[in-house]
Amino acid sequence: MSQFLQATLYGLLQGCMLGLVATGFSLVWGVMHVVNLSHGAFVLIGAYVALTLHQALGLDPFVGMLPAALVLFALGYGLQRGLVNLVINAPIFITLLLTFGLELLFVNALMVLFSADYRSIPTGYAERSLVLPLDVRLPIGRLIAALASVAITVGMGYLMRRTRTGLTILATGMDRGAARLMGISARHTYALTFGVAAALAGAAGAAVGAVSTFSPADAGRFTLFSFVAAVLGGLGNTSGALLGGLLLGLAESWGGQLLPGTLINAVAFGMLVLVLAIRPQGLVGKAYYASRVEV
Amino acid sequence: MKTSWCCTLSTLLALTASACGSKGDAGTRVADDKLVLGASLSATGALAREGALTREGYELCAEVINAKGGVPVGGKKLKVEVRFQDDTSKPDTAGQLVERFNDQGVKLILGPYGSATTEAAAAVVERNGQLMTDSAGADDKIFEKNYKRTFAVLSPATQYVTSMVLALHELAEPRPKRLAFISADDGFSKTATRAGIAKARALGFEVVGEEYVPSGTSDVSSALTKIKPEKPDVIFSSAHFVEAVAVVKQSHELGLDKVGFAETIAPPTADFVTSLGAAAEGVLGSTQWTDAMSGSDKWFGSAKDYAATFAAAHKGRPPAYHNAQATAACLALALAVEAAGTTDPTKVRDELAKLDAQTFFGPIKFNAQGMNVVKPMSVIQVQGGKPVAVWPKEAAAAKLKWPPRG
User: Fold this and answer.
1) Angle between helices A140-162 and A2-32 (to 10 degrees)
2) Per-residue pLDDT at A294
3) Domain, as residue range, for B246
4) What is the CATH number of the domain that holds B194?
5) Which of A237-241, B280-284, B303-307 has the lowest mean pLDDT?
6) Is A183 left (phi over 0), alpha (psi -120 to 50) or beta?
7) Residue B2 contacts A, CB cutoff 8 Å
8) What is the pTM of this model?
9) B2: which chain A residues are within 8 Å (Cβ-Cβ)?
10) What pLDDT was estimated at residue B5?
11) Who among A137, A212, A213 is closest to B254 (CB)?
12) Which of A39, A226, B130, B135 is 20 to 30 A distant from A214 in Cα terms?
């Protein structure tokens, strides 16, 4: 029983963090119809920003989530405005190619700047844990990361629906032509979306750095996690990505208890296939593309 | 608008191609006054870090030998030139690059980093009649194929966990009883784990857990959650850097902080201590080489001399064992070329098979499968934030601290 509870708790904590990693990816895919293969690289840039601030100023990595998000917002905004926007109307494989190329560039740039060594941001408290009944442990670092993830994701959901900017993003995602007729600048809105998504990735990267190890070679892994979590939850929906992340975390954790450890990835991807077969729009996604008008 | 699209896309494609590529120039034939060695290494991809360390070892070998005039071959002195290519950490690419070396007339090969890439390269080397000294492919599977043209200077995979079991058996007081094993699921790690488990049982330890995790994962919580109720005294992990760090970090998170840790290749690296901080203290690791190793050779001197030469060439940074094993592979090839008096791969191969040398890397002597079975592994323990050799006793720099956090 204790073992099962421990696995469940750990899966939930891990899932929250995966949710934050995936939220930006889901947003860009849902709103802009761009599968951003450089998303994993954004996560890592966030981790390296937090690491640099920690080394230079002794800044705690969880506090470092904010500057990491700001740096990534600027990078994301500029990148969309100056580059991705040029191919926004092109077939999806062109944007795939572009973001794949960007991922290679970023990963290799990180290798040149920081080397391929594995890093982590030691805090002194992140590995400690609270002791719950039945000797179940609640790791402090992961708890902070999970709470921050939930707060950011829920906050994002609120901002998207309650603020003018959020509604602008949603409107542009639903029907760009109509949004333009209402006076919305699609270019600016897309750049804003891309910037917000990159900022979320940056914040997630700082949290990942505090509880785990990272190196530039991990970019692909984070993109893959984001893809699975986003598709599981449903695209363009911040709570969907969080739900997808939680499901992925739990599946890996429970799967690891019931099956040999090497089959963990198979469990996660098996679940993805199952969800796609039964509910292709994801758990909380709407039949999105059917109502989308391409202009 | 359309023109600017095309410009941007073509620029990006060109950049992407340059990032993917680095497959090198079309080959020129090998010059007679040089000893040209081909090395397919991981400059990018998952093994980029270890690939860079291996490259440093090969480069140092060439620098030192060339500074002393070069390898004497049939009255001439040949300067060593190592040609590097990036295999992007992928076995298929490693095989293709060795094939390309062959097309360019490069017959003498220095091995890639890692067992999977080495295995792919070894098959090509055998088919083409090339010759390879393997610096970092330790999986016994490579040697079970009875290749005649691949020789590994490093101790085989079976020694990695076994050496730590032996160290605890001989030195740990009070003697631990219950051992648990976590292994990455790649061939090398599994071979090391299974040999370690067999040795532990033979020595009377109780094996209370055997878990396998996906290679390269940073989450081993499932394996630890399963092991925790068995109350192990020591957790052994045969894993790469990421999994090894995760085992220690997540054990602390899950309340397994009183156990001892014995991990294969990660603890000897400087990154291990940087990543884990105080949690790294007391962790055991196994290593192919420390600068306390006995033996010396005419090119590099003793292990201590090698460490000094390396540090001088790298702004005071001490060598990792990856550096040393790479240099040793290059050294073995140079010694065999000198003994053969030619660069003909078949004649050099025959000399390698007969080689029986004491070097800065320890003894090098190959069995019929091309494994260096005479070289012992060393066991280190992180003490005061630094890895120090604790086993075997004759090459120990400090006493084993046990219990590690007692």
Assistant:
1) 30
2) 41
3) 158-287+378-395
4) 3.40.50.2300
5) A237-241
6) left
7) no
8) 0.81
9) none
10) 47
11) A137
12) B135
